[in-house]
Structure to design on (216 residues):
């Protein structure tokens, strides 16, 4: 499944991401352990180790590796932390969070992707908690979360997600419309307060409301 050829290509990809400015070696090492090709659609499998986003099912995309590294670095995950991921997609980012030792709760609104990601991650022996639902709602029953990572573009930070962030916790989200977003990092400094910083421009598929049985 994961050949020497794949490992070699992956190492090169990781080296190129490092030269693009990712500094956390733990993040790069975690990504070096995840076989991205297993998460790709078969038509794009030969491009698994290029630094690009690709289509997956239901009109969605697997994020560009640099973007995964960038968001994961901003999230600053430590072992055993409880992490909420909104937008499971292919499950690739989920695997990277698991490689960092996080306990991952991940939500997807597209039924097809929700099912597929569980299968892919299960076959690779990765264990996350999967939810089919609307990430705008978060998972109140499992809150608070030490970290919240949103991998789809939202017009603003959803209030419910902020409420489910632990004090001292960090939330990372691309904020904007479908034409482009700013990467936002929110730190919850107390029950009532948070700070917010901006970290450059990105392009994600939109965070949509409600859950979906088929394509949008
Ligand atoms: N982390 C993914 C990126 C997938 S793209 C990966 O590594 O492959 C973003 C995903 O967010 C899509 O699968 C999309 O269906 C999902 N999404 C969009 N709006 C959502 C919502 N409200 N709740 C949960 N998932 C959502």
């Amino acid at each position: 499944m994961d050949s020497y050829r794949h490992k070699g290509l992956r190492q090169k990809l990781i080296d190129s991401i490092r030269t693009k400015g990712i500094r956390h070696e733990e993040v790069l090492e975690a990504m070096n352990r995840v076989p991205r090709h297993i998460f790709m659609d078969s038509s794009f499998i030969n491009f698994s180790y290029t630094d690009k986003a690709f289509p997956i099912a239901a009109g969605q995309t697997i994020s560009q590796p640099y973007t995964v590294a960038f968001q994961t670095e901003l999230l600053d995950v430590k072992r055993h932390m409880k992490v909420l991921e909104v937008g499971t997609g292919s499950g690739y980012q989920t695997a990277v969070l698991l490689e960092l030792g996080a306990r991952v709760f991940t939500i997807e609104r597209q039924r097809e992707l929700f099912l597929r990601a569980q299968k892919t991650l299960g076959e690779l022996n990765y264990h996350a908690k999967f939810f089919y639902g609307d990430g705008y709602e978060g998972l109140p029953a499992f809150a608070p979360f030490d970290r919240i990572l949103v991998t789809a573009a939202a017009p603003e930070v959803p209030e419910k997600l902020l409420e489910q962030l632990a004090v001292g916790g960090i939330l990372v989200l691309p904020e904007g419309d479908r034409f482009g977003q700013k990467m936002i990092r929110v730190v919850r400094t107390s029950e009532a307060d948070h700070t917010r910083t901006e970290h450059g421009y990105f392009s994600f598929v939109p965070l949509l409301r409600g859950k979906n049985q088929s394509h949008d």
In short: Residues 60-63, 86-87, 89-90, 92-93, 107-110, 113, 134-136, 151-152, 205, 207-208 surround S-adenosyl-L-homocysteine (CB under 6 Å).
